[in-house]
Structure formats: structure tokens, C-alpha cells
Design brief:
single chain, alpha/beta, 6-stranded parallel beta sheet, 16 helices, 13 strands, about 15% strand, globular
Length: about 400
């Protein structure tokens, strides 16, 4: 089957959640015998040098990329206030990119076109004009819900109003587009149910994030004592919100109970004020060279997520490495893990603090949960398992 994958950024290297989700699924479909043509926007925020083409991308049938400036611009944002379009969406549309896509569609026959996220939906009109392929949206999140929750949690009146406006416009667009596709590929069952409740009548197949298990079979390493860590892009507002909550509400209580506990924070866009909190037993840095190496020598992953939807890839990575994970219910949403068996769920300040202290005081219990997490990963989230499911779905739909 010839499959075109339309990506909102170049999914390489596969080191963060979005890239892992896109690249690993494409690789899995390739391993199942499908021909993958990858067409990508190369954004300034996640810019990738593609000349020469990385060897990992050469295995696909063909690869096409174009630089598109999707960055937020004050003048454009202000101008957009006087229109009804979603500024979140229009930033990703480029007439030049649409022209390149048209040429690719005219020169090839595809059975399936897979759009990676709602932000590539503006190109569906171009696709319908130049191809008879079935078009599927891989919905990484229910996008408007992220902005609604951020708006609800914002204290600044002006920011609250603007986030609310973005959420309303994005919701209008998302609801309008849901039935424009031949099928939707949600990341989680929870998102599938949300789409149904919002009026989606298209066929749906839940396709979670997939990982190569061999990549996470790392040798045992000396683990930092009493170490808790969070790793994730701090440019993503829900991560920033959750980490600030952890530092403001939970961590001072933990330090009071046991000053030997250490919290390690890393992620692109780490705010300067967080980096300066080392006096509270916090070690923060903006970038790490190797995410797996960063996780390898630490004990417990913390995921204090308070908003957002979709699936937290870093939790899946942590499970693949046999890490004990403490997460809010929202952070663990869609993964299907069981509290007290292969994950620890904590939603309040007290629950989160108690979970940290319990892991510190009972290392055998903590390690047992991490070992169970790895077993759960092996039967649920490997690339082979997930891509086989999608391959079967496409064969039934096309």
C-alpha cells in the first residue's frame, strides 16, 4: 500500500513525544511492507537540517520537506483578532507548501494519506483536488481542550481572555473538520470517546504511541539516590503549568519531610526562574543530549500534568525503561495502566507528596512497580504491535 504521511514538522530525530509518535509509526508501517512517502513542514521552532538526508529517513519511499515559518508573530496575532479564523491553525498554512503537495499528489497514486495532527487539516482541500486517496487524521490530542483548560487555569485576566478566544476558535474549527476525513486515528480511547461525544461520525481506530523496545534495553547504571525527575518540553504550556504546580505546592512539603530528596527537571524552554530553584533541592536544565541517558540514572519519574489530552510519550518511555512513575490521572490518561500495579496515580498535593515519600521509604515496592511497567509496555506499546493494528485497519478501509 502506498501511504503519504503529512507531518507538521520533520519527525527526526525521534527524541520527543511528537517526533517519536510520527517516526515510529511510519517505521512500523514500513516494516510491514508499506511504501511511505513523508511530506513535512520544517518549522523554525523544530528546524532540522535535512541536507544531507539523515540515513534513518532514507529507508522511506521518498521524503519531501519545505521550510515554513509557523512562529507566533505579534502583528499577525493582533490582526487575527479581527477575523474569525483560528490563529493556532492558520499559522501552519503555506501556499508554497500546498503547491509542493499538489505536485507530489499529481505525480503519485496513494491509497492512504495520513495527516499528523489537526494542524495539517488546512491542506485537505488540496488533497481532495489532486487525489482519490482515503484521508485519515491522526489526532494526537483533542486540541481545543488543551487551550480550554489553560484558559480556565489562568489568573491574569487579559491572558485568560486571549486563551479563551483561542480555545473557542480552535474548537469551532476542530468540530467543523471532524467529519471531513475518511477516518480518525485517536491516540487514546478517552479521546475517541470525546470525538464521538462531539459529533464525530467517521470511522475511528485508536492508535497509541509506539516505541522500539530494543532502544530502551539499556545496561544497568548507578542510580542517583533519592532521585525524582521530570523530562519534557517546557515550551508546551501544560508541562510548564504542571511543573510550576509541583514546585509551588508539592516539593516544599517533600523537602520539609526529607531534605535528601532531589528533583531533576529538564526540557527545552525551561524558564529561568525554575533553573534558579536549586536551593530547594531542584536541579534544572534546558536541554539534555540524550533523554534515555538522562532517565537511566534516576529512580522515579514524576508527571504532574493538570491539563492537556492525548498520550504522554515520556510515560511510555519511562515504562520501557522500567521506571517507577508517579502521575496525575490526566497525565496517565489513555495508557491503561493500573494504579499500585504498574503506575502510581496521585491527583492532589497530599497524594503526590505521599507517593514521593512512599517511593523513597520503600524502594523494593517502588522497583516492583517499575518492573511491572516494563512488562505492560512490552504487550501494549511496541512498534510491531501498534503498526500491525493500523495496517489491518487500513487494509479493511481501503
Amino acid at each position: 500500500m502506498n501511504i503519504l504521511q503529512l507531518c507538521l514538522r520533520v519527525p527526526y530525530p525521534p527524541t520527543d513525544g511528537g517526533n517519536i509518535a510520527m517516526y515510529n509509526l511510519a517505521s512500523g508501517l514500513h516494516e510491514h511492507g508499506h511504501k511511505i512517502t513523508m511530506v513535512c513542514i520544517n518549522t523554525q521552532k523544530h528546524h532540522v537540517q535535512t541536507a544531507p538526508l539523515p540515513s534513518a529517513l532514507k529507508k522511506f519511499n521518498s521524503f519531501h520537506v519545505m521550510d515554513v515559518d509557523t512562529s507566533v508573530k505579534i502583528v499577525d496575532a493582533i490582526s487575527n483578532l479581527f477575523h474569525n479564523e483560528s490563529y493556532n491553525i492558520v499559522r501552519f498554512y503555506s501556499a508554497d507548501f500546498a503547491a509542493m503537495l499538489s505536485d507530489i499528489l499529481d505525480a503519485n497514486v496513494f491509497e492512504v494519506i495520513q495527516l499528523e495532527s489537526l494542524f495539517m487539516a488546512p491542506y485537505i482541500e488540496t488533497i481532495r483536488k489532486h487525489s482519490n486517496a482515503k484521508v485519515f487524521l491522526r489526532a494526537h490530542n483533542v486540541e481545543f481542550e488543551i487551550w480550554e483548560k489553560l484558559a480556565n487555569g489562568e489568573k491574569n485576566v487579559l491572558k485568560k481572555w486571549y486563551l479563551g478566544l483561542l480555545a473557542r476558535r480552535l474548537k469551532h474549527y476542530e468540530l467543523k473538520m471532524l467529519n471531513m476525513f475518511d477516518g480518525i486515528l485517536p491516540i487514546t480511547d478517552e479521546d475517541k470517546n470525546r470525538f464521538k461525544a462531539l459529533g464525530c461520525a467517521a470511522r475511528m481506530c485508536v492508535i497509541p504511541v509506539a516505541l522500539d523496545p530494543d532502544v530502551y534495553n539499556l545496561p544497568a547504571d548507578e542510580v542517583l539516590p533519592n532521585s525524582f525527575f521530570h523530562l519534557g518540553s517546557m515550551s508546551w504550556l501544560p508541562n510548564k503549568e504542571g511543573v510550576r504546580w509541583l514546585l509551588r505546592e508539592v516539593w516544599p512539603w517533600v523537602q520539609q519531610k526529607d531534605p535528601s530528596c532531589r528533583l531533576y527537571l529538564a526540557g527545552h524552554g525551561m524558564p529561568v526562574d525554575i533553573i534558579k530553584k536549586a536551593a530547594m533541592g531542584v536541579h534544572a536544565e534546558a536541554r539534555v543530549k540524550d533523554a534515555r541517558a538522562y532517565m537511566q540514572n534516576k529512580q522515579v519519574m514524576v508527571v504532574p500534568l493538570l491539563s492537556g489530552s492525548g498520550m504522554r510519550v515520556k510515560i511510555i518511555e519511562g515504562m520501557a525503561m522500567g521506571k517507577t512513575i508517579i502521575s496525575t490521572s490526566l497525565g496517565a490518561e489513555g495508557i491503561g495502566a493500573t494504579h499500585g500495579e504498574n503506575i502510581i496515580i496521585a491527583n492532589s498535593v497530599k497524594e503526590f507528596g505521599d507517593a514521593i515519600m512512599n517511593c523513597k521509604s520503600d524502594s523494593n515496592w517502588s522497583k516492583a512497580i517499575g518492573a511491572a511497567a516494563r512488562k505492560f509496555f512490552e504487550v501494549t506499546f511496541t512498534s510491531n504491535v501498534v503498526s500491525e493494528k493500523l495496517s489491518q485497519f487500513y487494509s479493511e478501509e481501503v
